[in-house]
């Protein structure tokens, strides 16, 4: 090499990573080589205070991720973290005795989103039994996904998070977990830590009793729709098989109440539905798409035939059907905007549809059809609900409840109804107040941080809580489109963050306070343009009919997916594992772990451009 005028350099005679053989026969590692003096004109000791790392650029250290919850979010997180994070230590804690989240507790209900739109994008199910799948079938789908991707060894059932505290010196989350010991009513607490904590519990995980005087003095059977009292192994249908001579009351006209009324109506002697608010019910979602595929789609919940399922066995047919359904769901976003042409048309069409379905008891329409815009409350087609209200054994009761008595319900006008069974379909705690201490940097308590309303950055994280990300938190839901697509994208966002933590040897990643404030400002200016801010009772809002919208993303479902696709790394602050000022210390010693592999030619790395047609 000296013959052509190049300076003398150590000659590399071995491809073994991290070892360099010098011309004098000695061997040093690459870090030591950086300090070797030679006749190269560069002064290698000019930055003597800095030393190269003694590791390869892709020599990733161990990283511990803890996921809270084993519903759709937790299952997706378990799959994606294992897929993309190397040297991973993963634990998923689930408070229930089985996977499924809301669908484990609510297995008696059905989905009011088309079945083929309520599944993971990468795990299609072509043999759903009905257009709106029953809860047990959704639960079985989730259990099947968890088994297929071999998640059960990582899931600890009946383990409930009761405290989370960020530890500044270690940069880790310290967790306290409670689980039963086996003896009835006895629990023990364990401690765990996490480099990154991902919460997938969602906003609809803690059900609440209604605030009605005398509720717990009722001596009949008392149920909540979110925690159905049934014996293990029994279906909800079996649990109500003895109700044919009973008088049953259902309180509520939300999504759960709208499903329970038609489900119980043919199985009980008498049913009262107590409704204090109004709500829109849509025609069946995507009904024209269904009609184009099947012979008879007139049913409010079409049952797929074996012939239908066989047709879906053709990937092209199924893909086109599912794509059309999701196109239809996403295309309704403009109906959520105040004064839009689609909103005005929806009000006319939905009113006509509801009046038609209530033809046997037209007076109900006066108490049920709202003055506020379509979708101000969560919109549902309510298969069979209006028809059930018209049956002879069902009474629709718009008069407000005064109190619950030992054997019935008393209304504010003095009317009393004797009942045997009381079902509260009254929803969940949507205040976003944590049921356990969640403490971030500088002793910041999450409940204080999120009072009077929750604030986040893109609905996935918040400042003062490093290395904590979540799905279906504040302002994460969608009024139209695929909720599961949003869950997947929120999980993928957390995975990208985790990859950066590991790749760049970061101790912490924390969103900047000003980025949180900017998102909050955007939210405050978006919702006044939508029907969600109109006066209506909705779990989307913080407690009041005109409260702040905290349940929905400020935009469409597709808008959310675009926003979360690429993290804006400039919106975060970082802390390094190594006490080195040089931000590029993670480059290591200049080597990769495998210097013999042309990995960039592997299929997963190739990005082959299409050939232009013109």
UniProtKB/TrEMBL annotation:
InterPro entries named in the record: FAD-bind_Monooxygenase_sf (IPR051209), FAD/NAD-bd_sf (IPR036188)
UniProt cross-references to PANTHER family, sorted A to Z: FLAVIN-BINDING MONOOXYGENASE-RELATED, L-ORNITHINE N(5)-MONOOXYGENASE-RELATED
Stated family: Belongs to the FAD-binding monooxygenase family.
SUPFAM superfamilies: FAD/NAD(P)-binding domain
Name the record gives this protein: Flavin-binding monooxygenase
Superkingdom of source: Eukaryota
């Amino acid at each position: 090499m000296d013959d052509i005028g190049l300076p003398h350099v150590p000659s590399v005679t071995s491809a073994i990573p991290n070892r360099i053989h010098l011309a004098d026969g000695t061997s040093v590692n690459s870090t030591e080589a950086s300090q070797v003096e030679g006749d190269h004109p560069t002064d290698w000791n000019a930055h003597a205070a800095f030393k190269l790392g003694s590791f390869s650029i892709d020599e990733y250290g161990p990283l511990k991720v803890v996921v809270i919850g084993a519903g759709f979010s937790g299952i997706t997180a378990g799959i994606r973290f294992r897929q993309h994070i190397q040297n991973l230590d993963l634990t998923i804690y689930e408070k229930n005795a089985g996977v499924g989240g809301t669908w484990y507790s609510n297995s008696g209900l059905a989905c009011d989103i088309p079945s083929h739109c309520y599944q993971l994008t990468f795990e299609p199910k072509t043999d759903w039994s009905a257009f709106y799948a029953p809860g047990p079938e959704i639960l079985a789908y989730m259990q099947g996904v968890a088994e297929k991707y071999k998640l059960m060894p990582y899931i600890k059932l009946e383990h409930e998070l009761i405290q989370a505290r960020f530890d500044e010196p270690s940069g880790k989350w310290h967790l306290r977990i409670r689980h039963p010991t086996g003896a009835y009513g006895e629990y023990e607490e364990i401690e765990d830590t996490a480099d990154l904590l991902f919460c997938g519990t969602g906003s609809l995980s803690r059900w609440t009793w209604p605030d009605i005087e005398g509720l717990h003095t009722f001596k009949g059977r008392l149920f909540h729709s979110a925690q159905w009292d049934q014996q293990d192994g029994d279906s909800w249908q079996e649990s109500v098989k003895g109700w044919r001579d009973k008088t049953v009351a259902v309180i509520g006209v939300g999504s759960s109440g709208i499903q329970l009324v038609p489900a119980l109506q043919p199985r009980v002697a008498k049913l009262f539905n107590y409704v204090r608010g109004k709500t829109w019910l849509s025609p069946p979602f995507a009904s024209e798409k269904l009609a184009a595929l099947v012979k008879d789609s007139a049913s409010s919940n079409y049952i797929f035939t074996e012939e239908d399922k066989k047709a879906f066995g053709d990937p092209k047919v199924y893909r086109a059907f599912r794509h059309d359904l999701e196109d239809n769901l996403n295309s309704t976003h403009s109906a959520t905007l105040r004064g839009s042409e689609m909103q005005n048309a929806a009000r006319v069409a939905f009113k006509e549809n509801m009046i038609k379905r209530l033809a046997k008891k037209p007076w109900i329409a006066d108490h049920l059809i709202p003055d506020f815009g379509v979708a101000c409350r969560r919109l549902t087609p309510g298969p069979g609900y209006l028809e059930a209200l018209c049956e002879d054994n069902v009474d629709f009761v718009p008069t407000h409840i005064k109190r619950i008595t030992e054997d019935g319900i008393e209304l504010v006008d003095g009317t009393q109804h004797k009942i045997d069974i009381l079902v509260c379909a009254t929803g969940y705690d949507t205040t976003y107040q944590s049921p356990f201490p969640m403490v971030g940097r500088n002793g910041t308590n999450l409940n204080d941080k999120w009072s009077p309303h929750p604030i986040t950055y893109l609905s996935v994280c918040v400042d003062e809580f490093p290395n904590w990300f979540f799905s279906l938190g504040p302002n994460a839901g969608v009024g139209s489109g695929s909720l599961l697509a949003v869950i997947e994208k929120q999980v993928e966002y957390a995975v990208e963050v985790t990859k950066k933590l590991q790749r760049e040897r970061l101790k912490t990643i924390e969103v900047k306070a000003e980025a949180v404030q900017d998102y909050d400002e955007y939210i405050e200016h978006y919702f006044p343009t939508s029907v969600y801010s109109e006066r209506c009772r909705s779990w989307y809002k913080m407690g009041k009919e005109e409260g702040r919208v905290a349940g929905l993303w400020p935009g469409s479902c597709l808008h959310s997916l675009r926003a979360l696709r690429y993290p804006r790394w400039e919106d975060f602050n970082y802390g390094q594992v190594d006490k080195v000022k040089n931000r590029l210390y993670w480059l290591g010693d200049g080597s990769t772990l495998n210097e013999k592999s042309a990995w960039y030619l592997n299929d997963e790395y190739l990005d082959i451009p299409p050939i232009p047609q013109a």
